Amino acid sequence: GRGRLRSTYGIGLVPSEAEPRTSSEIREATADYAKRVHQSDPDDACKYLAIEEYRCLLTAQAEIETEEAATKCFKWNDEWRRCQWDQYKFNEGLTYIEGPQIRKAYRFAPNYK
To answer: Which of 15, 48, 108, 110 yields a CA-CA distance of 20 to 30 A from 92?
Structure first.
């Protein structure tokens, strides 16, 4: 989770002092993160899932409740990974995806070998 977020978009999740965040701090941090994600990769179909995972980790107070947050937010990371794979296949011409992240219509192209 956190390592990937940091390596993907160059942002760390862990603040210097681990204190529970308020909902407005979470909103602000998420908006800031979303802005950086959009700038760093505007065409990434999976960025919304990464943003939701980030919001989830903040909401679950990941710095304090690491295990619990990882469990709660795993679904977003899982969806993000699947989305990345679909996006890779799409970009390689292996499949067709429709919509930003969830609606997928698989149409496999014929193999002309």
So the answer is: 48
